[in-house]
RNA sequence: UCCCCGAUAGCUCAAUGGUAGAGCGAGCGGCUGUUAACCGCUAGGUUCUAGGUUCGAAUCCUAGUCGGGGAGCCA
C-alpha cells in the first residue's frame, strides 16, 4: 500500500510532501483558488489548490467536487493559523476516487428527525464523530477498570428464561416454540459467578420494552454490571465512586479537545472527585420538601422569565430588521437566521417555564414511600456539585433481591447514583439479600414463581455471603460526560420505541 | 397507556381566514487567503392524510398517520 499520511499526524510532516486520502468536508471553489477541507477519519485539513500551480490540469475537476466526494491529494504541509486544524496542504496533485452528488447533510441546520434518518451519513459530521470517539474511550476505560482491579469477565446470556426483576417490560422471543425474553440484566447470573470468582462483571447490550419516549431511554442500550462477594453496601459505593472518577479522568485526559468542541464545561468534569455526596432516600425527601429546593426552582423560574422577555424583545427587533427596506440584504439574512435560532430557544424556554410550577408542587408534596420522579432527581442532582448517591429506598418500590436494612426494615440497602448538573440517574445498585428466609419471603410476596428461582436460592443455601453490585448505563454516562441532552446521540444506531432505521 | 406541542420547497423556518415566501442546498455565471465566504440569475409546492365550517382554509373544527417533549417505569 502506498504511503498515506493521517491528518492527525500532519504536525510531524511540516515542510514535507504528503499524500492524503479522504472526503470533501467542505469546499469554497473559486476561479483562481479553491479551499477544500478534507476529512480523513482522523481529522480535518484545509487543502489549498491554486490554478496557477504548475501541474494544475486537475483544477477544474477539484473545483467542481461536491461535498463528501472521495479523493486523494498530494501536497506540501505547512502550519497556518488561518487553517482548520492548524495545518494546511498546498496541493500539487489530486485524483478523484468518487464524485458525490447532492449529499443530504449540508453545512446548515437540520432537525433531529432528518439526522436520525440519515444516521449512516451523520457519523461523518463533527458532533457525532466526537461523541462516538468519547464513547469508545468510555467503553475502553470500563473494561480497563475492572480488568485492572481483579474482576473476571462473565458473559451472561441474552436469551433469558424468566424476568430478571419485574416483568412485562421485556421483549418476548420465540425460542423454538417456547417463550423467552431478551435480557434486561445479567445480575442474577453474575451473583452465581461471583461466588466462584469473588469479583466479576458483565458488559453487553441489554433490552427494555418500556414504552418510554424520553431523552433518557433506549430500548437497546449497553450496561456494565460488577458483582462483588463479601461486600457491604458501603464497599459497593466505594467501588462505584472510584469507577466513575476513573472514567471522568480518562475522558478529560484523552478528549479535552472534543469536549471543548462539544461545548462541555470542563470545570464541571474536573470536579468529579471523591468523595461523592451520600444521602438517604429519607434525607432526599426532606431536601425536596425543604426551602432549598423551592428556592432553586423559583430562582430558575425568575431567570428563565427574564430571559424569555429578552428573547421576545430581540426577536421583535430582528423581525423588523429583516423586513426593513433600508437594511442591506446581508443584514436582513443574518437577522432572519438569528431569529430562527432564538425562536427555538424561546419555545424550549416556554415549555420549561410551564413545567416549573408543577415540579415545585411535586417536590413540595413529596411523600415518603413514593419513588423519586425524574424532576425530583433533577432537583437533587442540581443541589450538588458532585455526583450524589441516594441510598435506602422504601422496600416496596424496589426489586425483590435487594437486601433489607436490618436496622430499618421499611427500606433496602440500595442506591442510585445521580450525575450532577441535573443529568439524573446513571447507576442503580444494591447489596443483595443473602439470607435464605428473607429472600424466599420476598419472592413469595412478589408472587414470583419460586421454581424459576431455585437455582438463585441455591446461592443462599451453600455458603451464602454478603454481596452486592451495580449497573451503569453507558449511554447515559456518555451523554452526561459530553453534555448532551439526549442519549440517542451516544450510541451508533439508537433503538427507540417505534424506531429501528437504519 | 396518558398529557402537551408540531407537520409548508431537498434542509431549516416565515406567512391577521384573502395572490404560498426567505435563507441554505442544487444548476449557471462572477469574484475572493477563503473560514457556515460573498454577488447576480434559474429551477424547485396536491401546505401530512381524510372529512367538515366558509364566498374563500397553510390558517378554524373532527378523526387518523408520523414526529418531538414529558408522565409512569427505568440504566
What can you see in these coordinates?
It is a single chain. By secondary structure, the chain is α+β, with helices and mostly antiparallel strands. The chain has 3 domains: 92 residues, Nucleic acid-binding proteins (OB fold (Dihydrolipoamide Acetyltransferase, E2P), Beta Barrel); 268 residues, Bira Bifunctional Protein, Domain 2 (BirA Bifunctional Protein, domain 2, 2-Layer Sandwich), CATH 3.30.930.10; 71 residues. 38% of the residues lie in helices and 22% in strands. The protein is built from 15 helices and 16 strands. Strands 6-10-11-16-15-14-13-12 form an 8-stranded mixed β-sheet, with helices on both faces. Strand 1 and strand 2 form a beta hairpin. Helix 10 runs antiparallel to helix 11. The radius of gyration is 27 Å and the shape is globular. The two termini are 33 Å apart. The model has no long low-confidence stretch (mean pLDDT 88). The chain binds one RNA strand of 75 nucleotides through strand 2, helix 2, strand 11, helix 11 and strand 15.
Secondary structure blueprint with pairings:
Blueprint: E1 17-28, E2 33-39, E3 44-50, H1 59-63, E4 70-79, E5 87-98, H2 112-117, H3 119-122, H4 126-148, E6 152-153, E7 159-160, E8 172-175, E9 178-182, H5 187-197, E10 199-207, E11 220-229, H6 233-254, H7 256-261, H8 266-270, E12 277-280, H9 281-289, H10 291-323, H11 329-364, H12 374-382, E13 388-391, E14 414-419, E15 424-432, H13 436-445, H14 454-458, E16 467-473, H15 474-482
The structure holds one RNA strand of 75 nucleotides.
